[in-house]
Design a protein that fits this description.
The complex is a heterodimer of chains A (312) and B (428). In chain A, 10% of the residues lie in helices and 46% in strands. Chain A contains four helices and 23 strands. In chain A, the strands form six sheets. Chain A has a five-stranded antiparallel beta sheet with strand order 4-3-8-1-11, with no helix packed on it. A five-stranded antiparallel beta sheet of chain A has the order 17-16-19-13-22, with no helix packed on it. A four-stranded antiparallel beta sheet of chain A has the order 5-2-9-10, with no helix packed on it. The N terminus of chain B is likely disordered. In chain B, the strands form six sheets. Chain B has a five-stranded antiparallel beta sheet with strand order 4-3-8-1-11, with no helix packed on it. Chain B has a five-stranded antiparallel beta sheet with strand order 17-16-19-13-22, with no helix packed on it. In chain B, 20% of the residues lie in helices and 35% in strands. Chain B has eleven helices and 23 strands. With 428 residues, chain B is an alpha+beta fold. In chain B, helix 1 packs antiparallel against helix 3. The two termini of chain B are 35 Å apart. The chains are: A mainly beta (312), B alpha+beta (428). Chains A and B meet through strand 2, strand 5, strand 9, strand 10 and strand 13 of A and strand 2, strand 5, strand 9, strand 10 and strand 13 of B.
Chain lengths: 312, 428
């Protein structure tokens, strides 16, 4: 009986693995670095009130019209959103420190963010009667997380294009019809970590694409990792994410270490099982002279899957 | 010779012999029909098995198909007689020499091909294939803020051609270059590193097995005799361009590559990490070493680059703007020169402008531009719009700013892309 159970468990595991990395036909990844309607910043960090770690968030209006933007900051600890509004004049750039927020005399008031890490989502809200695609796809953004120890993680926000005319109503269907889909697979080149040296341990940030902030229901999903080393040998790992997580690669699996992988560089394909996820890596490495290096590492995308964000 | 002349004249005579074809109802000779007939005769003559006896078959006929494309891509008088480059007549010879181009209907029928012809005509006026002297002022007179035409390259997708605009290899700085094959098949890459100091290139081939990642240090190079991969060490500051030399015509065989770079200071660890700018192949076909970024064969170059940058504080660290031209003729080693126009918008929507001229690749510190200082702009952040006048650009900003306790922070700042313009990269 036990043997039969084990056999069935193995079959189910194999099927789930093959499904997890099955190619998705006819789906598109979101094209990046274009004026977008939805922006997601996967990593906003504030520690010690900004004295230890802080984040500069930058938004820019790439259109020649004024734009209203609704943003939600979701701290990893509570998984409940704090929302605020920003008004950007034509071509206006705007930046603020996450630890301090921003208060201007116009229609912009941004609260200080708290909690060690979290994600920021921003949505373009066109005026009534001006709901064409061009009125939606107007903004882009980036963020730089920096610490007192000199580490700097700069990255561009993940942008989703609006694909059809219509109003913003608080429900964001990332379905490939109204908005661009979420990426199905995310491909990273990563540097394998050295055993016992935390300065070489790269981190990964994971957050599900789907989010129900209206009902405050955290989305939970299994995330599968397919790792390929320079000898084309394949290894795999998995973890579970609820709302948001930030871990070192070694905490997820030993396959990311040089001792297991056998090469300096690896190719990891990240895929959410129940719902697509957004991920980014934080590269950490030592230079040949022993100095510590840090950089943000954005993924390359393949395929797309639908998801939905619900805002209050 | 007599046989060739007969082949040329016979169709025209046949056309004239049929009034329904060459003579209108009013009895007037339709010279357009006659000329078309002569053109058809000319084409049939080119396709005839006696091509080696024709006077126009020069030394280029004996070269490989890749070399035979040089008349249209180089556009230099030294390569081909100027007669073959005039007007629309230039395109058919190119098409006939590469069967894959002539066979596809879309090559001849789509509007995009008409635009490509315009680009060819432009080439005749300047030695660069992509030099388009398009006026850069908008209707409202402001530089670089008009609505851009064309479609920029979609980023972060598996690509057929990638550009890494900033590579440094010196005693104090080094670069880790990372490439990955995003397909389930082996791919061959043709790469060129172009050095900033003298615009001289060094080329090499890299083979990646299915899904293989590969990284190496620019200072050291790499060598793998098993995969016939040998990367020479790089020297100085430069850019790297890599194209998938697909062995099959399908798009999936082309669009398989992505890459990124980590430039770091050996002593301080100051790191600039950025993703390659990728261009997808849009139409199936063989790889010839000519990368037509025309929106038909490959994606177009971005017309404008938008950056959100931190303005320069007095006495503070200085950021840099790196720009490289999209167009590059490594065959004739002709460095692309262009003027770069900058539009700078502060948080109060006030617009400033600046410009500079460069050749090959350049790194411009923000201290060169008064309009990028906080004392001029009055705000911490600026919206920087960059546009090449005679050639579209690829670029990035290296952000430098002071953090907690005046710690120096450095990070790459990748551009947002708007619009598209055609351009050509020619590999030897």
């Amino acid at each position: 009986m036990q043997r039969a159970t084990r056999t069935w468990a193995a079959i189910v595991a194999l099927l789930s693995m093959s499904w997890a990395f099955a190619p998705v036909a006819g789906a598109d990844a979101p094209p990046q670095r274009l004026p977008s309607a939805v922006l997601i910043f996967p990593l906003i960090a504030v520690e010690g009130g900004g004295t230890t770690v802080d984040t500069r968030v930058e938004l820019v209006n790439l259109s020649r019209q004024a734009v209203d933007v609704k943003c939600v900051f979701i701290p990893a600890l509570s998984c409940s959103g704090i929302d605020f509004h920003i008004r950007l004049t034509p071509n206006q750039p705007l930046s603020w420190l996450a630890s301090k927020g921003l208060f201007t005399t116009s229609l912009t008031a941004i609260p200080p963010f708290f909690g060690s890490s979290g994600e920021l989502k921003c949505f373009v809200q066109p005026d009534d009667g001006q709901e064409s695609i061009d009125q939606h796809n107007t903004i882009q953004g980036r963020a730089a997380v920096f610490g007192a120890d000199g580490q700097t993680i700069g990255y561009s926000a993940v942008g989703f294009l609006r694909l059809s005319d219509g109003p913003y109503n608080g429900i964001i269907p990332l379905d490939g019809n109204t908005y661009a889909q979420c990426p199905d697979e995310q491909h990273f080149v990563f540097l394998s970590s050295e055993a016992g040296n935390p300065l070489t341990e790269s981190e990964i940030v994971l957050a599900p694409c789907s989010e129900d902030l209206e009902n405050s229901i955290p989305t939970t999903t299994t995330v599968q990792f397919l790792v390929v080393n320079e000898f084309e040998q394949q290894l795999s790992a998995a973890t579970t994410v609820s709302c948001y997580t930030r871990r070192t690669l070694r905490q997820i699996s030993q396959v990311f270490t040089r001792a297991t992988l056998g090469s300096e560089t690896g190719h990891v394909i990240v895929r959410g099982v129940q719902t697509p996820v957004l991920a980014m890596l934080i590269d950490r490495f030592l230079t040949p002279d022993g100095a510590r290096g840090t950089a943000g590492n954005g993924p390359a995308y393949r395929g797309g899957r639908s998801a939905e964000i619900r805002l209050p | 010779m007599k046989r060739a002349a007969a082949l040329l004249i016979l169709p025209a005579l046949l056309t004239l012999a049929q009034p329904s074809l060459a003579v209108t109802t009013s009895g007037v000779v339709d010279w357009n029909t006659v000329l078309r007939a002569l053109g058809g005769a000319l084409d049939s003559w080119r396709l005839s098995p006696f091509t080696n006896k024709t006077p126009t078959v020069g030394p280029t006929r004996t070269r490989t198909p890749a070399a035979s494309q040089t008349p249209t891509r180089a556009g230099t008088a030294t390569k081909t007689p100027t007669r073959t480059r005039t007007g629309t007549a230039t395109r058919p010879p190119t098409s006939t020499l590469t069967p894959s181009r002539t066979k596809t209907e879309t090559r001849t029928t789509t509007v995009t091909r008409t635009a490509t012809m315009t680009r060819t005509v432009t080439n005749t006026s300047t030695p660069r294939p992509t030099s388009t002297p398009v006026p850069t002022t908008a209707n409202d007179g402001r530089i670089a803020l008009a609505i851009a035409d064309g479609v920029p390259p979609a980023q972060n997708l598996a690509s057929a051609f990638i550009v890494l605009p900033y590579i440094v290899s010196s005693a104090t700085q080094d670069t880790r270059i990372e490439l990955m094959n995003m397909s389930n098949r082996d791919i061959q890459l043709q790469c060129f590193y172009v050095r900033q100091s003298d615009c001289i290139e060094v080329g090499f081939f890299v083979r990646l097995t299915a899904n293989q990642p590969l990284s190496w240090l620019a200072y050291d190079g790499a060598s793998n005799p098993l995969t016939f991969t040998a990367v020479p060490p790089f020297d100085g500051v430069g850019e790297l361009k890599c194209a998938v030399a697909a062995e099959r015509p399908e798009l999936s065989a082309h669009n398989a590559l992505q890459g990124r770079v980590l430039v770091y200071e050996r002593l301080t660890g100051e790191t600039v990490g950025y993703d390659a700018i990728g261009f997808q192949r849009l139409s199936p076909g063989s790889y010839s070493g000519v990368i037509d970024l025309d929106g038909f064969t490959y994606e177009q170059c971005p017309d404008r680059l938008h950056f959100a940058v931190l303005t320069r504080q007095t006495g503070g660290p200085v950021s840099e703007l790196i720009t490289v031209p999209c167009a590059e003729d490594l065959l004739t080693q002709t460095p692309t020169q262009t003027t770069v126009q900058l539009a700078i918008v502060n948080e109060f929507e006030q617009v400033f402008s600046s410009s500079y001229r460069f050749s090959c690749i350049t790194s411009q510190p923000f201290s060169k531009f008064i309009a990028l200082s906080k004392s001029t702009l009055g705000t911490d952040t600026a919206h920087l719009v960059v546009r090449g006048v005679s050639s579209p650009l690829i670029g990035m900003v290296i952000d430098r700013f002071s953090g907690q306790n005046a710690t120096l922070h450095t990070t790459a700042n990748e551009p947002f892309l708007e619009g598209g313009r055609s351009s050509t990269v020619i590999f030897p």
